[in-house]
Amino acid sequence: MTDALKIKKQELMRFLMQYKFAINEMMTKVNILKQEFTYINDYNPIEHVTHRVKSPKSILMKVEKKDLKPSPAVIKEHIHDIAGIRITCSFESDIYIIRDMLKQQDDITLLSEKDYIQSPKPNGYRSLHLILSIPIFMSDRTENVCVEVQIRTIAMDFWASLEHKIYYKFNKQVPKHLNIELTEAAEAAHKLDQKMEKLHREMAEIKAEYEEDPLEELNL
Ligand code: 0O2
């Protein structure tokens, strides 16, 4: 490797490092919220959390697609999903609870929000996407770093994972009949989410009534 290439590689690694640190910061925040919420409310709204830093290859593909100059400053300004966190919740209402808890933190700035739950994509894709900015304190400077947070239910995640696999299996040219079936499957997943949400509400009501007067249940 030539010296010039070595320097480029070092620059790239340092550039990507800030996204890794941003994910670490966000993961700490999400874990604290999860533990404290569970303690107070006696249930855990988060099923699981995954994260990734976009690979240099995917970043460069996006640079090309968006016709950007491949410089760190330009990439940082225009590509906001280099650091990505996916939070999978039990119920649809939990998604907005998590969103609000993140939004209210002093060091988090909400840059944009796309609600594909209220307005699903034509193929049926549902998820809440937030672009957040958080400060990362490095050895010689503070960087505000973007993190894309996708929040969805287990059913939305199940559908999106399979759809993603099918999409790439067919090299992004999915046969029409499969697309129609996938959209129908997204609707089925949505109905399941609605049913689960209803059950969740009913259970909360029963629990609240019982907590008001536990003896009433025993007819004492
Ligand atoms: P990966 O590998 O998940 O990162 P952008 O290109 O990000 O500037 P865009 O396309 O408007 O702008 O972003 P949007 O709509 O917020 O969606 C970006 C991400 O959402 C995707 O990332 C997917 O993770 C997810 N997503 C969006 N639409 C779909 C869909 O129809 N099906 C599935 N399975 N996932 C979807 P990437 O970059 O495509 O890939």
Automatic annotation (TrEMBL):
Gene3D superfamilies membership: Beta Polymerase, domain 2, Nucleotidyltransferase
UniProt record, GO biological process: guanosine tetraphosphate biosynthetic process
Domain of life: Bacteria
Coiled coil residues, start to end: 182-209
Record pathway: Purine metabolism; ppGpp biosynthesis; ppGpp from GTP: step 1/2
Keywords: Coiled coil, Kinase, Transferase
Domain RelA/SpoT as annotated: residue spans: 51-174
Keyword Nucleus tagged: no
Gene Ontology molecular functions: kinase activity
PANTHER family: GTP PYROPHOSPHOKINASE YJBM (PTHR47837), GTP PYROPHOSPHOKINASE YWAC (PTHR47837:SF2)
Protein name: GTP pyrophosphokinase YwaC
Species of origin: Halolactibacillus halophilus
